[in-house]
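Weekly modeling sync, notes
Attendees: S.R. (lead), two postdocs, one rotation student

Agenda item 3: backlog of single-chain predictions. S.R. asked that every request posted to the team notebook include the full sequence so nobody has to chase files. The rotation student volunteered to paste the first one in as an example of the format we agreed on. Action items at the bottom.

Example entry:
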Amino acid sequence: MAIDTCVKNFSGAVLKFLAEFTPKCCPRDDPILAGIQNEIGLKNRLRRQWQVTRDPALKAEVNCLQRSVNRLLNEWRNDQLSVTPEPLDPEDQSMGRVTKRVTKVPTPSLPLVTLGDIALSDSEKAEALADNLETQFQRVTHPSVPSVIEMVDVTLRSKFLTPASDPNLTNPEGV
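Predicted structure, as returned to the notebook:
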């Protein structure tokens, strides 16, 4: 209980400090964000020009600007997130969520493999799925080994033919 209180007090002190000493400015006044907006405007103008001319060199430049804008926006968002940390409140399990987010390893999704190679197109994937279902759900033309069938029959007969045991009855005083 004391640790929870200490974590709550520490988290509150950090957030209070950040709130007091963080400069209050509109994000649009940020020179970095203004530079990103200028680059977005340039990219949009070039894209409109490319839509008219369909020049491959212009398209390459538009793609390069798009990647640059995405990189700059991601960097800016990451900087904004690192400036204001979320509170570590023991009641809402936020410390556990932070730890889980950091330590969780994503489950890899394995590619769909057909006879020796990877299925890439939709038709190859459909064919691989159909083959897999076909092999899983084949009709059994002959039953399995007769000795196994006999053993299962004997076990089932013994279970069904065994009488149930009588329950132990108690008197009302014993209850």
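Discussion: group reviewed the output briefly. The longest helix spans residues 56-83.
Action items: rotation student to repeat for the remaining queue; S.R. to check formatting next week.
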